[in-house]
Amino acid sequence: MPKYIFVAGGVMSGIGKGTTTASIGRILKDYGFRVTTVKIDPYVNVDAGTMNPIEHGEVFVTQDGCECDQDVGNYERFLDENLSRDNYMTTGLVYQTVITKERNLGYAGKCVEVVPHIPDEIIRRINLAAKKSKADFILIEIGGTVGEYQNLLFLEAGRMIKLRQPRDVLFVLVSYLPVPEIIGEMKTKPTQYAVRTLNSAGIQPDFIIARSVLPLDEPRKRKISIFCNMAPENIISAPDIKSIYEIPVNFEKEDLGKKIIKKAGLRIKKKKDNRWFNLVNKIQKINQGKKKVKIGIVGKYFETGNFVLSDSYISVIEAIKHAAYGLDYKPEISWLNAGRYQTRPASIKELLKFDGIIVPGGFGSRATEGKIKAINFVRKNKIPFLGLCFGLQLAVVEFARNVCGLKNADSTEINPKTKYPVIDLMPEQLVNLREKRLGGSMRLGVYHCKIKKGTIASKAYVKENVFERHRHRYEVNNQFRPLLEKKGITISGFNPERNLVEIIELKNHPFFVATQFHPEFQSRPLHPHPLIQNFIKAATKKF
Question: Which DSSP helix (H) or strand (E) runs through 197?
């Protein structure tokens, strides 16, 4: 029987429930336990694929093609394991499953009710993930905050499991303690209210993760203990830190792992694995050193009002860090708005300040011409370049226009009437668009890529057959491949089952590589992605 750990948020979202869940998972794994995680999103969307990245952050894709919340990416990076669609659920998916079962007489004529049938379906999905992974611990992160109406059913599911298996369930509350500048004192009242809200759902937290800009002091810990009915040693200080990978190390300063294992009635299985601790030490030394690599990301999902949102490209950002740290370099990452290169063409010269440029994925026509201008600039000025998904497609468009002489060549996603559709839809995708089957219908998940010998890609992978994750609908049009190759594009990776372009590169350039897939989804702190690491290696050399 697995042990269940539910992780819920206090009065504010975005304070680190995902990294807390991932960190607890990492700690328990380092003690020798089998661990898996589940993310619950309270949205009525069936999956995250139709959510705007500016509002929701990155859409992460699992091996089996589930479009899910970015926290699943954090789980994979911390646990160093592949997860699946069984590790993600939304309100919409749960209701869809219950309604489908009801329509198929799966409830044998019973009156189907929100309670208990919705929580029962949530519990079924949690247990399925635990069973498939053979987990000792299953961590369940409930998105949003405890006071949100849409989270009540997920809290109810946790309460029901606790009722049935009281010794097998723990609750962790991640709560923010503000330090208002005008007051200059850390305030505990939001946490007190969060705990009382959790109490009203029939749940008492076993641990509080006290998030704040500063470490938690003894007076505040004592106050939380008294008013939240908690033992002081179970209130864990979680101040802001420079790297998310330090979080497990910080938690272990207060022996969180041992406390969880003891509360769960288990014993430590083996001597603790110190690889993560050693990694954090290495990162700290690198960040204090002088070896730096400056990487610019030319995107369009950064701005939300007056604020910058880097979560839209979180896997790209973390993959850059993994690769740079693996080469003993501190990464300096800058967000570059592609739209500026359309409205202020002269600003594109700022790209000369960087050691390498990445054009990541995206959808739609907005700022597309700005990205194409950026790709043209880095190609001509020999700046190391890595294109990801849409970045590959626009690199092909740029090359077709400016090297192959195909004036106004384009993707049919941007210009359906283009004379030269160098990027186009596959027949089955054309049907999906026509019949408006859009959600979950792209080329998703892992596909085979065969690597051409003697290329940059083959040098990076050091093997002929690789498997990478995809999330796109448009492909390089094979009708134009002979011309593209004749003019200098090397197709260094392709899908042999469908003869689809997967990787392109250019010769006589320090590093000009683009992939139709998303290598960043498979990069891990302990195992950087080889293609991204080769890009960083090229960026650290003077060009």
Answer: helix 189-200
* Eight-class DSSP state of 222: H
Is the residue at 247 inside a domain? Answer: yes
Q: Is residue 61 situated within a structural domain?
A: yes
360, 287 contact by CB (below 8 A): no
Quote the number of domains for the chain. Answer: 2
CATH number at residue 522: 3.40.50.880
Helices and strands: H and E segment counts in the chain? 19, 23
% of the chain exceeding 90 in pLDDT: 84
What is the per-residue pLDDT for 433?
82
Assess if residue 283 is contained within a domain. no
Same structural domain, 195 and 338: no
Number of residues in the chain: 543
- Is residue 449 flagged as an active site residue? no
Q: In the prediction, which pLDDT does 543 show?
A: 43
Out of 141, 468, 505, 520, the active site residue is 520
- Considering the candidates 228, 389, 404, 449, report the single residue annotated as catalytic: 389
* Residue 80's CATH number: 3.40.50.300
Domain match, 224 and 319 both: no
Q: Indicate left, alpha or beta for 508 from its phi (over 0: left) and psi (-120 to 50: alpha).
A: left
Confidence of residue 55 (pLDDT cuts 50, 70, 90): confident
pLDDT tens column, 196-217? 999 999 999 999 999 999 999 9
CA angle 362, 364, 367 (to 5 degrees): 80
Q: In 192-351, which ranges are E strands?
A: 207-212, 235-239, 292-299, 303-304, 307-308, 330-337
Global pTM reads 0.94
Q: Is 389 a catalytic residue?
A: yes
Quote the pLDDT of residue 457.
97
* Residues 197 and 274 both lie in one domain: yes
User: Are the C-beta atoms of 388 and 358 separated by less than 8 Å?
Assistant: yes
Beta bridge partners of 506: 489
Average pLDDT over residues 374-389: 97
User: At which of 228, 257, 278 does a domain end?
Assistant: 278
Range of the domain at 173: 3-278
DSSP-assigned states of every residue in 80-146: TS---GGGEEEHHHHHHHHHHHHHTTTTTT----HHHHHHHHHHHHHHHHHHHHT-SEEEEEE-S-T
Q: Is 518 considered catalytic here?
A: yes
CA distances from 162 to 5, 437, 502 (A): 10, 40, 48
For residue 531, what are the contacts with CB-CB under 8 A and spacing of at least 6?
A: 386, 457, 460, 461, 513, 515, 519
